[in-house]
Amino acid sequence: MKLVIVESPTKAKTLKSILGKSYKILASFGHIRDLPKKELGVDVANDFNPVYEIPAKASKTINELKKEAQTASAVILATDPDREGEAIAWHLKEILTGNADLKKKSLKVTKKKTKLSKKKTKEVALKEGEVVVEVPLKVKGLSDDKFSRIVFHEITKDAIDEAFLHPGIVNKDLVDAQQARRILDRLVGYNLSPLLWKKVRYGLSAGRVQSVAVRLVVEKERERKAFKSEEYWSIDGIFETPEKDVFMASLTKLNGKKVLITNEKDTKSLVNLLLADKFVVENVTKSERKRKPYPPLRTSTLQQAASNIYSFTAKRTMSAAQKLFEEGLITYHRTDSLNLAPGFIEEARKFINTKLGKKFIPTHSITYKTNAKSAQEAHEAIRPTNVSLQIDEIEAKGLTKDEVKVYSLILKRTLESQMTDAVYDQTSVKILSQGGYEFSVTGSIVKFEGWLALGTLVGLEEDTKLELSKLLPEQHFTQPPARYSDATLIKQLEEIGVGRPSTYAPTLTTIQNRQYVLKDGKYFVPEEVAYVVNDLLVAYFPEVIDFQFTANMEEKFDEIASGALAWVPVLKEFYSPFEKDVAKADKELEKKDVTNLGESDEKCPKCGKVLLFKLGKYGKFLSCSGFPECEFAKPLDSEGVNADGEATTFGKCDKCEEGQLVLKQGRFGKFLACNKYPDCKNTKPFLQKVGMSCPKCKESQREGGEVVVKKAKGRVFYGCSNYPNCDYASWKNPMQGNSGDDE
User: Fold this and answer.
1) How many helices (H) and strands (E) does the chain have?
2) E strands within 539-632?
3) CATH hierarchy code of domain 299-416
4) For the whole model, what pTM was predicted?
5) How far apart are CA 148 and CA 141, in angstroms?
6) Are 85 and 501 a contacting pair, CB within 8 Å?
7) Which residues are catalytic?
8) Which of 88, 406, 453, 637 could form a disulfide with 79 if both were Cys (CB 3.0 to 4.6 A apart)?
9) Where are the alpha helices (DSSP H) in 366-474?
10) Per-residue model confidence as pLDDT tens digits over 307-364
């Protein structure tokens, strides 16, 4: 019997249905070896040699794999077809051949006695709550020639059969590229994070890609704050032909120059002039236009589409896509390629022909080229493995709603990418007045059957006299640049060359988990700590979060993966100057300077000195500039304190009946706590009201429900004060209008 090793049980189950009884298929449950969590784990002096460890939870899996591998006729490593998967395959081989030290690993325990079998482990007490677990493996290491590596980008019978016909070996170049990225990110994180703990706030982290993402969000927010809105007006006219056909056109020019109206007074004067003017059709231009279909989806565009259409986070999208891949329903979902297999294209063309007709199929199949500098993560775009498998059949398989939605995006986009261009007739009309004012309008009629008509302009010819029946002036204000959403931030990262398909989702998750940003609706808003950390990194480590530097590092990883570059010199070139920058920042930076955010307009009520904006554990607050002589401090919004900065009370503590409830600030926002803490640890949620009744409670005539601000996992949302009796929730402040995101 042959042993096949994959990462997940779901993938193993799908493979088992294809390979049959002559194969034993087991899962490694992801990575089974990694750099240690609580130390650097990189021997910098010895060519950056990584020191890997095996988590205690992987011990049982390793023993099972070792046991099965010992009796198997061959071991086939079938992990994912990217650098991460190649690295997992390499680690598995290192362990199963006996090249890796499995014996020592410390772990935390919560009980005095563990449930580990005494026959399999030996425990030696260290500090309180920590033990050393030794995992004796009584079987011999396996020889290299027993191992092979297979790669497939879809879990279908044809793809699996083809992969087994051409087994290979672990690609060490891909492994080195993954190791180089992992080690570089560890060097950056384990040097910068302690610096941030010391100089800014404990618990912060910095990373090569995550810090660039935070910088983008911070700079966008500063653009918004610096933006000055300007007033402008537009004027639309309702015109009528002699045949009584009515249409609308917009004022665009005066004597050939663009019209710019900036105030209501000028608008009213212009309206009076136009109403007294006479109009004629100056020019009618008709043309045929084509609109090409979008290319098939790759990782970044799948995440963008799911964000725009379903408001999915990148993590949520990739979780659904992972399950679809493991179930054999789509091709590998971490890819920057736009290729489609010729065989699949033919199947898609036949399907379109059967369902829609021959006119929807171009004469030749359509191929796409990626704009990415290096499309090496997989050899195909994301597509269904079986184009005939439609949404209703997918739903019948018992998949989750998220998985069905993501599959529908992939299916629709893939089919569209192989269809004929949309063709429509476009008519552009220019209307000129005797006074030199020009109105224009463009309309189009889709010629293809089944496509949506965008509008029509019929019966118009040049020199047709028109009657201006009505003018519609409207006031506007220029808007600041929009904040980043999951979709636009991923798009920007991709455009500047930062990150790769496997990094987008974890990067966006990390910057939220580290509380650098929070979500307001679906948009990223930087927290105050993001500004402080970003400015510190820009000042002392400009290379680390420079867009071009980070993009160049990605290109070097690609060169390592192709075998064109050795990984150790790449790390040496980076680390030598970086190490000096860390030492310089540690010496020069003072925490009081970093966390001092400037003077406010307020004076200290106790000593009369200026109050300073400062960054604390839970955000921005006001503090006396006379500190430590004067210890006066208060929250920025002054909520929960009086004019003297003393805590106001929110009623008697219902637990100890001696203390009073006061407002506190915690990791997840404000809450009420007893002022007798730690003798009394009573806490209650603080309900920050927005000033309106809960619409769901109002509809059901339930009393007392009000909309309050809530926060969960770095994301602000709005819920009912009657929860759990009322489950109203919205990602957008309902006082600002209906968001369409209510749940």
Assistant:
1) 19, 30
2) 596-603, 610-616, 619-624
3) 1.10.290.10
4) 0.77
5) 16
6) no
7) 332
8) 88
9) 391-396, 401-416
10) 999 999 999 999 999 999 999 999 999 998 899 988 999 999 999 889 888 888 888 8
